[in-house]
Queue: 2 jobs
Job 1
Amino acid sequence: MTHISVRVDGASYTDDVEPRTLLVHYLREQLGKVGTVVGCDTSNCGACTVHLDGEAVKSCTVFAVQADGSEVTTIEGIAPQGGLHPMQKAFHEMHGLQCGFCTPGMIMASIDLVNDNPNPSDDEVREGIEGNLCRCTGYQNIVRAVRQAAAEMNPAGGQA
Amino acid sequence: MTVTEDAAAVAPAKEVGQARKRKEDARLITGKTTWTDNMVLPGMLHLAVVRSPVAHAKIRNVDVSAAKEAPNVVAVFTGADFAEEQGSLPCAWPVTPDMVNPGHPSIAVEEVNHVGEAVAVIVARSKVAAQDAVELVDVDYDLLPVVLDMEEAVKDGADLCHDHIESNSSYHFVFDSAQVGTGGDVDQAFSDAEVVVSRRLIQQRLIPAFMEPRSVVVQPQGDNYTMWSATQIPHILRVMAAMVTGIPEHKLRVVAPDVGGGFGGKLQVIPEEILCLMIARRLGKPVKWTETRSESLMTAHHGRDQIQYIDIAADREGHIKGLKVRLLADMGAYLRLITPGVPVLGGLMYPAIYKVPAFRFECDGVFTNKVPTDAYRGAGRPEATFAIERIMDELAVELGMDPLELRRKNWINADEFPYTTVAGLQYDSGDYEMATQQALDLLGYDELREEQRRRRESNDPVQLGIGFSTFTEMCGLAPSRVLGSLSFGAGGWESASIRMLPTGKVEVVTGSTPHGQGHETAWSQIVADQLGVPFEDVEVLHGDTAISSKGLDTYGSRSLVVGGTAVVKAAEKVVAKARKIAAHLLEASEDDLEFSGGKFSVRGTPGTGLGIQEIALAIFAAHNYPEGIEPSIDAEATFDPENFSFPHGTHICAMEVDTETGFVKIRKYACVDDVGAIVNPLIVEGQIHGGLAQGIAQALYEEAVYDADGNLTTGTFVDYLVPSANDLPHFDTGNTVHEATSNPLGAKGVGEAGCIASTPAVVNAALDAVRHLGVSDIRMPLTPERVWRAIHQGGDGGDRATAGINAYGGASTETTTGESTDASSLGGDR
């Protein structure tokens, strides 16, 4: 067992974990952060995407021990109390989800995308989220959602 | 001032038809939902399944001694432990009286028949402990010949998939229009025909690939059991699991919490559900099983997998005279819930939107040593639509006719509805010309045709093609009597109840269980209109047999058409019951009351009125109500449709094909769908988008590939190509509205439309781009490799290079990998 300290969604945790424990399993099973889900075992689907020190990572591809000393943000930690992050709001308004299983990872990846590119075109959004699979929506409304959220997150950026 | 204006000013806008944002989203976008795998119960044990690495073998010995000694392992079970009690997983659709069903144990006892079949189960204190111990189980197998290729499997003397049955054939189903009396003699039609076109088409095996892996939790409480499962069908599962395990139905509660997609893939009673029940019963402890993605791709049922021999007869002017279809349908190793019925259901749809005078459909269900097939979005209808829309293009080429002109010549005209087809189905309504015109406009057809001409003339390495699919489908499963006539093991009704709470809030209980379709939103809209209550005051409950005791769940584009209608019927009963209370309280005759905007008022007496939400409180108190009636305005209704509904539409794909690399790219995709009346346009458009993605994925990306030993080589998302955002185009969508005549909502069903329609449009477009280069078929999915080979080497592009065999190529082996063999080339008149 290895001792780790990690901040998740603004709270500090110290735990003993097996070195092989994946970050996503630590989040789900030890911290009860079940908003982050597991969709595959080959890092293809992106359903488990969280932010590690502000960068989107697939938490099935990170060991929990690698997060030692880091700040992790999950879907449960992006919104202000009682409110929604602009990306969450945009997914709702643009009907960017159906079954919703990919949605937490999709939203986390999209926030990172907009942080890197404040004013993405349709094609840039499609490229930017190609590491996240959705089986329900055909992606069109997700693209709309990400662009709407980008406009709200970066009002000065305008639309391409 | 007129009365009409006044009424209009106060009448609230109707909810039905509005693009309401979904109620479901709040918990899904915040990570606060309940997936089955989120469940944690005190003392819960975790299961991991030891699976067969071989496709066909006798089990000589299973040594679990090392696994039993592993840390934190509580128990290890093998097939022998459950041989006496496990029975067979159910197959509810014996399509012929003499259909052969080999039986389907949840855990193999003596023989394994596909890779991934369960041979032992580890029960441990944690998931990782269970998974670690899987490695410690030692199974000895005596290998048997592996049956993979359907055309080989049906030959005399073929190796057998199951040695306790006589052949690899499960059933032979025939529909002949002359025999049934719905049309003429098909053999006569062909011998009289001026033109006959024949093709052998491949419907490759697909994997539904819902995003949420399957998960099951069972909690025993004395002799009661609660099962949570990521299923589409909690109600059907409860009945079936009770019958399989012997747990009395009333002692078993099944809950489908939020379910992350299904697409038919969770329309199943799975081995692990039965295993969880049996192990929870044996140990008296709660258990959980959650699959990995690799397990899911390998063992959850697959879809499609048919070889279609289709022949069409016509005169020189292009009038269809007859249609013959013969299918080999891969059942896989076992018959699951509706495995045999899927191709038979599709059989009714081959005549599609065309006036076909004579029709014969024959289907052989064939066993192979692969995971069973079953429902996948469209379930039989995408296969049928693909074949007929492909052969229409082939006939057009043969006749030198524009493919749209050929379709127009044969399709049912708007003034001919209702129209009874040669398959005996009565189509309700539609206008194929109108949808086609709109789709052509959306696409910008004329400009693209012009560009295609320019590229042809300049011999551009990137050629452009345009492909059509003018489709219809059969939705709203299903009239119970029709299901009975097809030997289906259940009815097709749906149930709903409405509970009026004391505060005026409304609980709607539906038997149709959603997994992404937005029932909570759409049903709220329906009830808001019916009862005149605010949308926000309605809560929709579903998916728990203790709350929603009756239902037949969600599949076959049935929820709104059948389940939504049950909601309407229940609401009508609520209003009828409330009317009696209102009359009593208002001291008026029932006949003098009108109900509008949620209020009863006495006709001609402005100012009087009593809201239905106030009546809910009054009847809860029950201090003052008429004699002779019960103090409740709650109501329940069951709706059994008298007919299917028949959505239709025109889908047009413009495709660029790079003749130097074989790379294909959808340039533009336009579709106009008629799904009847629309309750929520946002949800309808979303369903179309998602269907398109899956239909296009069949054409371009997805294929479940087995190697020569029966191993699934596309067992992860690295190899099985579920498309990403970057692999799909923007969709231009539109609607026409011709209401269904079989339900009061006028709705036709939308869940499968995009998936059924799009595949042939995409393939027809690619072929249209390269037909002048001598290409007349390319096997799906249209990988660059296949497209390049079809252009430069002829044939249909052959097997995937990574496949030793994929069961469609006849003699393909490791050494002929990727080669187009005789058996994989076109059949028929070539």
Job 2
Amino acid sequence: MAEKIISKFFDIRDSHTIDVYMKHGGYKTIQKTLKKMKPAAVIDEVLKSNLRGLGGAGFPAGRKWSFIPKDSSKPKYLIVNADESEPGTFKDRYIIDHFTHGLFEGIMLAAYAIGAHQCFIYIRGEYVRQAERLVKEIEAARKRGFLGEGIFGSKYDLDIVVHRGAGAYICGEETALLESLEGKKGFPRMKPPFPAIEGVFGCPTIVNNVETIAYVPAIIERGAKWFADLGCERSGGLRLFGVSGHVNKPGVYELPVGTPLREIIYNHAGGVLNGKGLKAVIPGGSSSPILTPDEIDVNMDCDSLAEIDAMLGSAGVIVMDEDTDIVRALYVVTRFYRHESCGQCTPCREGTGWAERILKRMLDGHGRPEDIDNLFRIAGNIMGNTICPLGDAVALPLKSYITKFREDFEKRIPVDGAGASKQRDSLMLLN
Amino acid sequence: MKKIEFSKKAKKEFNTIVGRYPEKRAAMLPTLHLAEKEFGCISPEVEVYVGELLTVPAVKVREVVTFYTMFAQQPRGKYHFQICRGISCDLLGCTKIRDYLTEKLTLEVGATSPDSKFTLSEVECLGACETAPMMQVNEDYYGKLSQKSVDKIFRKLK
Ligand SMILES: Cc1cc2nc3c(=O)[nH]c(=O)nc-3n(C[C@H](O)[C@H](O)[C@H](O)COP(=O)(O)O)c2cc1C
Ligand code: FES
């Protein structure tokens, strides 16, 4: 079996403490880097490693860092996105719980690379225990001189602040996160300007996912080539696949980027619960289009999934057995996006509500003949018409579930037309 | 409107919080978390007070309080049961756990018991889908729920 980088710490006792982390080689890389490497060389190494953002969008991390203006006199900020609210995603929680100082070492390397002296960890409000752990371990690191003024006796200053969210999925979207951090409601911003130019407090800002940052120490320690070779052509390394739903062994599995989905479900997650057949799989968090059993030989990397019109997103694999009601699954997913739509853009705010109500009525046995067409129409009107991708995150599932499981939806429309109310006008149809 | 104020200890904590940010307003969420702990919920009086502390109009505070799900605008029970209704929990039968809880607590989802002991809520994915079906009670997560394990959690609380 391939080696583990982050998850090997999951089974070590007290791996979240400084001493245990250092016993396993922790904090050597940052000390060496501060002495021997220029920030630009760190960026270059990460660029060559093909590390792609693991929060959802898959943007190359090194490339993002290189967008930070070199000549700006403004302070620069690093923000670690620990909002982790995409349904089916729970990997960052493991990193915070067990690879705490590994995350800090990654923060130190990334902040040093982009010239930031302050880092905010934006953590979802519900992760109370994880926030407490971060605060405690930051304090421990500060006491030893690993954080604060002149870290590790160098001339480089760095501090980390833990900032708790308060329950809003949208604040995982990076520009909504910036607004939220500034003390406002989480309305996504128009881009450009991109955060690297004008982010939090009007200053150059890099936002990266917890897991992205957590892989940086290994890359700098063992080299870009080693990391790149672990993955596939355009996406380096390993990543944490979270598997949930109808499987025998739900959990986090650290595997090479590009591992086939079938292998993840059947070899690692122990196959479908109770030996049942497979109905469908969501490959990368609930924003992703759904896959049918004959599509699970796909390799789990951004590009391979994009080829079959799906996405790897946060690599949260959700498995559904043969008895799953797909209409209900789509209803639950749509209800989530309706609940979490920030309300700024009309197509998303209204469209998610319409779609949820139509699906609910199908579930309740009152589907109408025009419902399927209406759902497609709503999805089409949301797609691409919103400031942030939350709209797409509901439009894509809507289209894919209905296209791939059309019969299941048609069955929910009574043939005698009992649910249809022909006399209603088009607006009423959506009520 | 009743005038309210942080305790000495909370004031000190507030000053530490504000010191972490280059702009005062950025202390909004941590100050509201602190205020909720201090006052039990974020009432209109608390909104005004937090606005004064951060030198922003109260309406800007209200906008934040109502945008996020976690802030209590009314007092909640001593134990806040939050059952996850996300997709992974739904696949593994969270609605049964919810129904069991509504029965056990004789509470509708969203309600607080008359003795202020329990509040029952349904929430979106809590980021612990590998333990589905799961819930959060106050600050702690409980996973792999069954009627039996729910009973056990109750025994611990009473
Ligand atoms: C609606 C929405 C929710 C998101 N939630 C998260 C999240 O919880 N955590 C995260 O890291 N990225 C999330 N993202 C992606 C971020 O916008 C951003 O791409 C990411 O944090 C960048 O880090 P990375 O390049 O390291 O992946 C979300 C995006 C959208 C559109
Ligand atoms: S779906 Fe319940 S924790 Fe994720």
